[in-house]
Amino acid sequence: MIRSDTPIWQLTVSEFMQVLENCMPKNDTRKEEHTAKKYVYGLKGLCELFSCSKGTAIKIKESGVIDKAVTQIGRKIIVDAELALELHHRKKK
Prior knowledge:
By secondary structure, this protein is of the alpha+beta class.
């Protein structure tokens, strides 16, 4: 055990590494699988997501098929891209 009053210049490399290991927080070795959701915004984003015209994007949105993926606050439209694609493909089958 290294005494807390020992000057750093008197430590060996291994002792210094031991001090650093004790001071640094431990990293989890397991990887946390965190996938950020991708959102598209507005009718333009919906057009790009489905590769369609603005009129078709409006029809898709108003059909109710992707309602679970759409959040609308006033004029702002936010669409969970992955969920919208999944819901739309389910409807096609």
